[in-house]
Q: What sequence folds into this?
């Protein structure tokens, strides 16, 4: 029971996080298509905007979660060794945590 | 029993587990290719994101850092190829993801539609990637 409801909420969160990331990607692609190559001042002004900082952080948290769930589902389909699988799962957790912590540092802690 | 057409029965195909040597005789159908590319781009992006964050940090740290990215990484043909590949991976994973979510809703599941939409995912991704790269050159 607990396990099946965990899978259902994981399934939904995988889709919700996908939509969050896709919205951010579409926003950035639209900005690049409309404005072309930014210069340093424009690029840093964009990431200096608090709204854009929050959108970026939200997208990266969603990406970390989405990537972690995806990776944990994909590895066992191709890797049968328990030891190698444990290493890949550990890597996935560390990468997901690193993405979130690093994003917070880049967006709100740097300088 | 003497009349049994033995020769004919011996030419019937034999089904066994396939080995590596025979793999080239089997081709994944296009929806299968679309699915495995979705997985490969997903894993590649999950790994590459840490390197992209390093580049984002450098580009935001100072004007000089941004110029290093623009002239040395994006200005290098190898850097341009790798980053364009990652851009394709982002766009492909997103477009293929939309298709998979529509399939989650039990739509587009018949074979002709599954095939045509798999082709469309590749086409849309290539065109959109080319458009963005062209805009950034």
A:
């Amino acid at each position: 029971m607990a396990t099946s409801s965990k899978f259902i909420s994981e399934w939904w969160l995988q889709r919700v996080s996908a939509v969050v990331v896709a919205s951010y990607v579409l926003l950035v692609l639209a900005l690049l298509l409309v404005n072309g190559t930014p210069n340093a001042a424009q690029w840093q002004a964009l990431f200096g905007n608090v709204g854009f900082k929050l959108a970026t952080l939200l997208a990266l948290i969603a990406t970390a979660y989405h990537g972690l769930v995806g990776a944990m589902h994909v590895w066992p389909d191709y890797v049968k060794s328990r030891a190698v699988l444990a290493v890949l799962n550990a890597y996935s957790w560390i990468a997901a945590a690193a993405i979130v912590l690093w994003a917070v540092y880049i967006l709100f802690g740097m300088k | 029993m003497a009349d049994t057409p033995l020769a004919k029965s011996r030419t019937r195909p034999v089904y066994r587990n396939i080995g590596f040597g025979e793999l080239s005789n089997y081709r994944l159908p296009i929806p299968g290719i679309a699915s495995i590319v979705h997985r490969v781009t997903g894993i590649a992006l999950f790994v590459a994101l840490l390197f992209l964050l390093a580049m984002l940090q450098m580009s935001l740290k100072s004007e000089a850092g941004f110029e290093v990215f623009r002239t040395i990484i994006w200005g290098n043909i190898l850097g341009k190829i790798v980053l364009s590949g990652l851009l394709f991976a982002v766009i492909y994973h997103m477009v293929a993801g939309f298709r998979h979510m529509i399939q989650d809703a039990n739509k587009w599941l018949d074979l002709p539609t599954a095939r045509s939409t798999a082709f469309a995912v590749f086409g849309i991704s290539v065109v959109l990637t080319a458009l963005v790269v062209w805009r950034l050159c």
In short: Chain B touches chain A through 31 residues (CB under 8 Å). The two ends of chain B are 77 Å apart (CA to CA). Helices of chain B lie at 6-10, 30-61, 63-73, 77-104, 111-136.
